């Protein structure tokens, strides 16, 4: 739509005026990519094979040049290879595809793909008589006649585009070509990489969280990892002199997280929002894939909800969730369509062994982004009545089933933006309060609903430098609800406040005692140094919130 507006405006306006408009719209596209919004993923139809791939380039200033080849023949992967940042150029990957059963004897299918300046076959002995064919952008294709049945598992059946030097593809049978397309782009963020799927689409592995045989279960909360398209820039890194001051945000964030995953071996990871640093993620898919790949590789189930920054890049919440839902080990869900937000859902952690009973229930809710009524309530949005009603109904409907569990069943909740009650400085707490609590100005009553339904702990993210748990009492003054912060883990998000070290919160659940212990692990920069564990505390004992 943006492009049509530009074009119409240009046809009406004088040429000099026109180019100003073009530049203005191009600049805007960096933030919100219309092409990506209209078509999140290329349609990966089952039963299709790719018979040709090419890269087309067009001018954004010359209004006659088009980036779309004949749609009867070519399917366009809807991602501008310049990510909308090219002042004068756009470029797209196009593929030809055919239904497998419609392939003729003379049709060829792509069995290998490479990127580089030189013909990959030069210096090699004539392998299968297949020659590498050149395409624009440094692309080389090896095509083979379909009659070679042996090519079935090698045949490329879907093509996608990812960006950045650290691009990875966690989808089953997908692989990212190791070198970026040869386009004259500046900066590694814009390195466009082809990702391909080989063979028939495989169903993603399912993540089923379950209490271990020893009755224990560990949850790792990743709060505000702020990943970018590309390796990103560190904000307020602490310590700053680590690695001779060279700081790639996502490299450092992911290294830290990987190390903790390997040491702590969590059974479930909750990503509590702001996984994607929208402003520096013109391709949100590339950012999401980075965290997903680490979890898929380690076979750890994960549940994601969104923060205020996730959808400030190329993809709205609904389309991000559509993508995340299809990834291996993801147990994330968009939730019911008729209530506000995307990602209001329940995760049931099953009892140990082969039990079908739930031992632990996690309620995850979308806390949205900015206030819809800035005049009356400054700052951030709040949980809506229909979400709170959904939560209460859900809790009621699950009550009977949960009572069937042989031990004490427990309920926890995760959100992104803190609740207004986090502001209460008089509450007992463990951990640091470093910055103003940016809870919404309007209190829609979620804390009361949590207490009413017996949820013993809620944890949020959002305020990176706050990392305390405070205890909210019930009406008779008894411990009722622990309200925790995860503590910001990502170097692409702000730190500061007197030298905040990135950290990650863990919850260790012991079903034998209906006990929950929480602690944090801190990034000190030096790989050799222990990632210190601090603020160990038991927050739940015998299934009830425990006082200090
Ligand atoms: C407060 O919590 C205590 C301990 O769990 C419980 O016995 C009591 O009934 C609660 N009071 C109210 C008013 O909910």
UniProtKB/TrEMBL annotation:
Residues 217-465 form the Calcineurin-like phosphoesterase domain. It holds the Pfam family Metallophos. Gene3D superfamilies: 3.60.21.10. GO terms for molecular function: phosphoprotein phosphatase activity. InterPro entries: Calcineurin-like_PHP, Metallo-depent_PP-like. The chain crosses the membrane at residues 9-26. CDD domains: MPP_Dcr2 (cd07383). GO terms for cellular component: cytoplasm. It comes from the Eukaryota. The keyword NAD does not apply. Keywords: Membrane, Transmembrane, Transmembrane helix. This is Metallo-dependent phosphatase-like protein. It comes from Amylocarpus encephaloides.
């Amino acid at each position: 739509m943006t492009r049509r507006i530009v074009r119409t405006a240009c046809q009406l306006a004088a040429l000099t005026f026109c180019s100003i408009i073009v530049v203005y719209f191009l600049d805007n596209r960096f933030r919100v990519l219309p092409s990506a919004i209209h078509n999140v993923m290329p349609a990966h139809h089952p039963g299709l094979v790719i018979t040709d791939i090419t890269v087309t380039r067009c001018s954004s200033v010359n209004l006659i040049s088009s980036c779309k080849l004949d749609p009867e023949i070519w399917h366009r992967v809807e991602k501008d290879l310049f990510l909308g940042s090219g002042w004068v150029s756009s470029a797209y990957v196009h593929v030809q595809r055919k239904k497998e059963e419609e392939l003729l004897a003379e049709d060829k299918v792509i069995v290998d793909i490479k990127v580089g300046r030189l013909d990959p076959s030069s210096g090699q002995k004539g392998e299968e008589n297949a020659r590498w064919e050149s395409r624009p952008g440094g692309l080389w294709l090896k095509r083979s006649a379909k009659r070679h049945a042996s090519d079935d598992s090698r045949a490329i059946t879907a093509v996608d585009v990812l960006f950045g030097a650290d691009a990875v593809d966690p989808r089953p049978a997908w692989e990212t070509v190791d070198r970026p397309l040869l386009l004259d782009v500046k900066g590694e963020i814009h390195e466009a990489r082809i990702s391909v799927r080989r063979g028939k689409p495989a169903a993603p592995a399912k993540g089923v969280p379950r209490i271990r045989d020893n009755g224990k279960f560990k949850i790792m909360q990743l709060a505000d990892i702020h990943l970018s398209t590309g390796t990103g820039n560190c904000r307020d890194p602490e310590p700053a002199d680590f690695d001779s001051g060279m700081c790639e945000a996502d490299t450092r964030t992911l290294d830290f997280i990987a190390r903790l995953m390997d040491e702590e071996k969590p059974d479930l990871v909750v990503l509590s929002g702001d996984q994607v640093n929208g402003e520096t993620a013109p391709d949100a898919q590339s950012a999401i894939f980075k965290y997903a790949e680490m979890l898929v590789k380690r076979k750890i189930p994960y549940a994601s909800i969104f923060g205020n920054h996730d959808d400030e890049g190329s993809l709205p919440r609904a389309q991000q969730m559509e993508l995340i839902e299809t990834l291996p080990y993801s147990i994330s869900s968009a939730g019911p369509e008729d209530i506000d937000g995307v990602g209001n859902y329940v995760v049931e952690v099953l009892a140990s062994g082969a039990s079908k009973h739930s031992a632990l229930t996690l309620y995850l809710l979308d806390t949205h982004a900015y206030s819809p009524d800035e005049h009356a309530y400054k700052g951030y949005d709040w949980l809506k009545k229909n979400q709170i009603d959904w939560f209460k109904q859900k809790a009621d409907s699950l009550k009977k089933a949960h009572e069937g569990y042989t031990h004490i069943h427990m309920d926890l909740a995760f959100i992104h933006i803190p609740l207004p009650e986090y502001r209460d400085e008089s509450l007992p707490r463990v951990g640091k309060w470093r910055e103003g609590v940016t809870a919404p100005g309007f209190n829609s009553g979620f804390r009361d609903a949590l207490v009413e339904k017996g949820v013993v702990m809620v944890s949020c993210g959002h305020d990176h430098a706050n990392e305390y748990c405070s205890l909210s009492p019930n009406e008779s003054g008894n411990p009722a609800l622990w309200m925790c912060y995860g503590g910001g883990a990502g170097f692409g998000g702000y730190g500061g406040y007197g030298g905040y070290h990135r950290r990650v919160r863990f919850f260790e659940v012991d079903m034998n005692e209906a006990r929950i212990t929480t602690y944090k692990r801190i990034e000190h920069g030096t790989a050799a140094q222990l990632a210190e564990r601090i603020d160990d505390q038991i927050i739940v004992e015998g299934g009830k919130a425990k006082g200090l």
